[in-house]
Amino acid sequence: MQISRHFPKLAILALAAAYTIGAQANQLEDIQKKGEITIGVDISAPPYGMVDENAKQTGFDIDSAHLLADALGVKLTVVPVTGPTRVQFLRTKKVDLIMASFSITDERKKVIDFSQPYGVVPVVVGGPEKVKVAGPADLAGKAIAVTRGTTSDKAITDSTKGISGVSIVRYQDDATTNTAVMTGQQQYIVAASSVLPEIKKTSPKTDIGYKYTAVSFPMGVGIRQNEPELKARINQWVETNLKNGKLNAIYKTYFFGQSLPEAMLK
């Protein structure tokens, strides 16, 4: 009797859960019916998202978001987000997706889902334009500015072990690191690729250019969990536009002509 008394309640809960999952799984259909998709982009993180001199939103993520919206046949609405608010905006349904230099990590996968990588977040080495630096060995005898405790710090520390005369000069924050290069205290820097154009913009006379990529982190489209139809459609879009070269062309536009990793384009 006790089992039968509880069975209807359990059945109702099971049906409610199934309905919830089904509703989530139809988000792609909802977007297409609405004719609009809202995508969160960090427009304060060049070259992924920024505002140009004509107050137009631009950047790798902005252009990629337009490409995705066009593929879905819907209007794009960009919602500005920041690094700390990306997950929150996605989970609270303030946006349908996130495209904001969103590196794929195991920690984030616990609360949201990701598409296949459509781009990378590279950590790069910058230095004087006319000096050839193609890899860690070419940094022998050079002093390099980096922000302490960052992925950039780890990347340059690991890659230059055993190389004679490399001096890693660590600063407490990005602003101080950048200032050290702009004032000539160091000629070389290891940082996110977005830092180099910012240095040139702030200090046009600084002799700094892209040398090589130290490490790259894959980045994906942020998706709410339990949305298999939407995830499958976005993955199809990623695969198609990596193979046809459109995403790589956008990437090259904003990253000094650099290409996406060869393995992504196959």
What is the topology?
Blueprint: H1 2-25, H2 27-34, E1 36-41, E2 50-51, E3 57-58, H3 60-72, E4 75-80, H4 86-91, E5 97-98, H5 106-109, E6 113-114, E7 119-127, E8 143-147, H6 151-159, E9 167-171, H7 174-182, E10 188-192, H8 195-202, E11 209-219, E12 222-223, H9 228-243, H10 246-254, H11 262-265
Parallel strand pairs: 1-4, 1-5, 8-9, 8-10
Antiparallel strand pairs: 2-3, 6-12, 7-10, 7-11
Textual characterization of the structure:
This protein is α/β, with parallel strands linked by helices. Helix content is 41%, strand content 21%. It has eleven helices and twelve strands. A five-stranded mixed sheet has the order 9-8-10-7-11, sandwiched between helices. The radius of gyration is 22 Å and the shape is elongated. The model is unreliable at 1-7 and 17-24 (pLDDT under 50).
